[in-house]
Amino acid sequence: MSYSLLPLGAPLLLLAAATLGFARPGRRPPLVAVFAEAAALGALLVVLGSLALLLLRGAGTSGLIGLAGIGLSVRLDAVSVTMLLLVAFVGWIVVRYARTYLDGEARQGYFTGWLCAALASVLLLVQAGNLVQLVGAWIATAAALHRLLLFYLERAAARRAARKKRLFSTVGAGALILAAVLVWASFGTTDIAAINALARSGDASWAALAAAALLALAAVLKSAQFPTHGWLTEVMEAPTPVSALLHAGVINAGGFLLIRFADLMLAAPGVLAVLAIVGGFTALFGALVMLTQPAVKTSLAWSTVAQMGFMVLQCGLALFPLALLHIVAHSLYKAHAFLASGGAVEQVASIRRPGPVAVPDGPAVGRAFLIALAIYAAIGTVFGLVFGFDHKSPQALALGTILIFGVAYLLAQGLADAAPRELTRRTALYASAAAIGYFALHSAAEWLTTGILPATPAPGRLEWTLMALAVLTFGLVAVAQALFPLWATHPAATGLRVHLSNGLYVNATIDRLLGGWSVSKAP
User: Fold this and answer.
1) Residue 314 contacts residue 470 (beta carbons within 8 Å)
2) Which DSSP string do the residues of 200-226 spell out, in sequence order?
3) Cα–Cα distance between 462 and 441 in angstroms, integer?
4) Mean pLDDT of the 356-382 span
5) How far apart are CA 171 and CA 220, in angstroms?
6) pLDDT tens track for 233-252
7) What is the structure's pLDDT at 145?
8) What is the pLDDT of residues 304-336, one digit of tens each?
9) Could you say which DSSP state residue 191 is in?
10) Do the Cβ atoms of 72 and 132 come closer than 8 Å?
C-alpha cells in the first residue's frame, strides 16, 4: 500500500462508527456517540494528513485496490482535498452537534449510524479516482440520506419528502450509471484523470457528448434544481443535523460532479448552456420565494435552492474554480445557519427596537446601483494594474456584476433619507469589501486549481446572450427587491406574495403529475 491511499482511512473510520451504531440502535447506546465523534475527528486528521501529502508529493491518482478498473482508488488533487476538508470538517461539527441534539431519542444509535455512513459515502465520492467508486459512493450517499430523512417515521410529511427524494435520486443514479458506461465505451478507461486528459486533448464522440448530457441531468437532480426542488423544501421534517449534513457534500454533490468532469463538460457547450439557463432560473426563483417564507428553516431551505442554482449557473458558464469556491463558502455558512437556527428567532426578538425604518426611494436605489458598479469597476482595475489580474474572463466579470447587485441592495438601505450616517458608511464599506473579496478569492481559486481544472474558454454568441440575459434579469430582481417596501401594500403585490410563498405551486403540480403521494405506508 502506498501513502497516496491515506485518504481512504477517513471513510473507514466513519464506517466503523456506523457499524457500532447499527449494532446498538436504541436510546443512549453506550460509547456510540463518543466513538462517532472520535471517528469524525480522526477522519478530519486523516484529511489534514492527505493535504500534507498533496503538498509534498503533488497531485496524482493512487493505485487501484481491485481488478479491471473496479475497486478503490484515490484522486488526490486540489479539488478532492478541498472537498475532503470541507466534508470532514462540517461532518465533525454535525456529529458533535447531533450527540447533544439527539440525546434521549428512542433511535439515537440508529441515527448516529446512518449519519456516519452518509459522511463515509461522501468522503469516498469526492476522492474517487475511478468511475465505479464514484457511482457506488453516489448511490450509497443517497441511500444513507433516505434513512436519515425517515428518522421520524410517524411524520407523514417526512415520508412524503423521502419518497420524492428517492424518486429523483433513482433517476439521477440511473443517468450517472449510463453516463459512466458511455464514458468507458468512449475512452476505454474508468480512471477519471485519464478520462479528463483524453477529453481535453481530442474531439469528443457522440457517446462522450451523450455522457456529458447525462452527467448534467444527474447533477441537476442531485442539487434540487427547478422543477425537482420540492423535496429539499420538505425535508425540514427531519432532525436539524440532517439539514446541516446536506451541505457536507450531499446537496452540492451535483456541482462537484460537474467540476470533476469539467474537461468532458467543456466538450458539450450546448449542455453547458442548458445548465446555465436552469441554474440561473432556479437561483432567481429560489431567491424570490425565500423572501416570503415565515419559518427560519424553510427560508434557509429555499436559500439553498437558490444557492445551488447559482452554483449550476457558474458551472454552465464554465467557471469551475469559482463554482468550487462557492461550494465551500456556501456550505460553511449554511451548515452553521441551520445548526444555529434554533435560537435565531429569540436573538432577533431580543435586539428588535422600535424606531424609524430606512426605506429607500427610487433615486436612492439608482444611486446605490451606480455606486456599487463604480466600486466594482475601480477595484477590478486596481487589481488588474497592481497584481496583474487582467486575465479575467467575460463570464467571471458578468458573474461579479450579478454578485455586486446583491451588495447594491444593501447599499440602498444606507442611502435612504432616514438612514443614519453610520449605516451609510457601513454599507459602503461592505460594498468595497465584497468587490475586493470577489477578485481576491476568485484569483486564489484559479491559482489553486491551475492544471487541475480547465481555463474558461472565450464566450461565443450563445454565451454572450446568456450572460447578458443573466445580468439583466438578476439586476431587475435586485431593483425590485430594493423597491419592495414602496409597493408592498399594493393589492397586486399582496397577491404575488401569497403565490410566491407557495412556490408558485410548482411542487404541488409535480405531486399531481406524479399521481399524488400516498403516505399510508412507510416507503
Assistant:
1) no
2) HHSPPPHHHHHHHHHHHHHHHHHTT-T
3) 27
4) 73
5) 11
6) 887 778 888 888 888 888 99
7) 92
8) 999 999 999 999 999 999 999 999 998 988 888
9) B
10) no
| Cα–Cα distance for residue pair 211/177, rounded to 1 Å | 10
Q: Which residue has the cell 476522492?
A: 127
**Distance (Å, whole) CA 72 – CA 489:** 60
Helix count and strand count (H, E) for the chain = 22, 4
CA separation for the pair 291, 300 (Å, rounded): 10
With cell 411542487, the residue in question is 507
Beta carbons of 134 and 256 less than 8 angstroms apart? no
Query: For residue 414, what pLDDT is reported?
Result: 67
Report d(CA 486, CA 484) in Å as an integer: 5
List residues bridging with 67 in a β-sheet: 70
pTM: 0.91
List CB contacts of 189: < 8 A, sequence separation 6 or more: 69, 195, 198
| Widest pairwise Cα distance in the chain | 71
Residue 462 CA, distance from chain mean position: 26
For residue 516, the tally of other CB atoms under 10 A from its CB is 9
Q: Residue length, the chain? A: 523
Statement: residue 361 has pLDDT above 80: no
Q: Which residues pair with 71 in a beta bridge?
A: 66
398 CB-contact burial (10 Å; exposed 0-12 / middle 13-18 / buried 19+):
buried
> What's the start-to-end Cα distance of the chain, in Å?
42
Residue with cell string 431551505: 301
Of 225 and 413, the one with more pLDDT? 225
18-32, 278-292, 310-324, 426-440 — which is least confidently predicted? 426-440
